[in-house]
Amino acid sequence: MTIAEVVPSLLSGLDVPGADNTLDLPSARRVVLLLVDGLGHELLRTHADHAPFLAALPGRESSAGFPSTTATSLASIGTGLLSGEHGIVGYTFCVGDEVLNALTWSRAGDHHHDLRKTLVPEVVQPHPTLFERAAAAGVAVSAVAPMNHRTSGLTRAVLRGSWFRGTAGFGDLALGAVAALGQDRAFCYAYHADLDTIGHFYGPGSDEWLLQLEFVDALAERIASRLPRDSMLVVTADHGMITTSDRIDFDTEPVLWEGVRVIAGEPRVRYLHTGSAEVLDVWREFLGSRADVLSREEAVDAGWFGPVGPLAFDRIGDVVVAMKGSAVVVRSQAEPVLSNLKGIHGSRTRAELAIPVLFHRSS
Asked: Which domain of life is it from (predicted)?
């Protein structure tokens, strides 16, 4: 069970052709899907006393897919495909000669270099979205998310097909999500980012994070209390998070540079585009038990990315480095902010992959 199955399972109850309820979720004619960035299943279970409303909801556990990072998971939410098919294979990845930051749709390391014209989002991710399919079937489809997401490259790439309502905070997110259910058949995707942001800077489970979790719990409860009849709130996440304490700095380890033409990804999962077959062995020996270091072919054969098509294959890189434990491969010079984050995600541990799928039906 993966994040790619969440929206099709919900759209099946809205009579969208080809949408199958593989997660066996309850059906409703009007649905709000609230995606809370960073709300991992393990974190919610561990800190259930800070989220009594969410902790009491029925539901099940699913998987974010690999890599367990926001851009990839949102692409799976929007397309119903895993990363090997939709091609958004991480936070940063190579598309031709460019290294694309998929969240900002800019050149990696240079947020001012907008790539929406040269790497057209609808070309980088060309598969039809589930929102487009639902709208074509007569469902009123809405996206309620931060205002600056409206014309972003990622929204165009993976969430196109919905009517967009920009938000500034909790209040208009909750009211906007409920207002989107005015039609007889309606589906609203609502997104909240701040729990993930707090987790990155202060660490998951910190006092700051726990207070933010309480706010998220209240947000979900407020939406649920305002739902019209025959409606359902579903709460899920894009990934979990760990606290990092073991840093390997690529920028200060010359042994890791040899043969590496481009390094992409993020601290918990790195893609190495290489000019030497020896890179694989060097990284395996250097990282040892702190990482799974596989060739692209090995990672694809192991099913890490799900089915892999030609769109994603070259973007994955020649070597895939999936960190274990609390280890990260940072770049102190090229990625100073990212390198100092306390909370991190992206790899294949249960804490990062496991996500909740919770539901509340209105009476």
From this structure: Bacteria
49-105 pLDDT per residue, tens:
999 999 999 999 999 999 999 999 999 999 999 999 999 999 999 999 999 999 999
Rounded (10°) angle between helices 170-179 and 207-225: 30
Q: What is the per-residue DSSP string for 120-188?
A: -HHHHS-SPPHHHHHHHTT-EEEEEEEGGGTT-HHHHHHSTTSEEEEESSHHHHHHHHHHTT-SSSEEE
Crossing angle of helices 207-225 and 194-202, rounded to 10°: 170
Rounded to the nearest 10 degrees, how much is the dihedral formed by the CA atoms of 200, 206, 209, 215? Answer: 180
Q: Give 212-254 pLDDT, tens digit per residue.
A: 999 999 999 999 999 999 999 999 999 999 999 999 999 999 9
User: Where does residue 290 rank: exposed (0-12), middle (13-18), buried (19+ CB within 10 A)?
Assistant: middle
Reported as a single tens digit per residue, the pLDDT across 116-142 is 999 999 999 999 999 999 999 999 999
DSSP classification of residue 334: T
Whether residue 363 is predicted with pLDDT greater than 90 in this model: the reply is: no
- Spatial CB neighbours of 240, under 8 Å, sequence gap ≥ 6: 38, 39, 40, 41, 42, 43, 64, 68, 204, 345, 350, 351, 352, 353, 354, 355
Give the domains, in start order, of the chain with CATH numbers: 3-87+114-241+349-361 (3.40.720.10), 243-343 (3.30.1360.180)
Note whether 241 and 196 are within 8 A (CB). yes
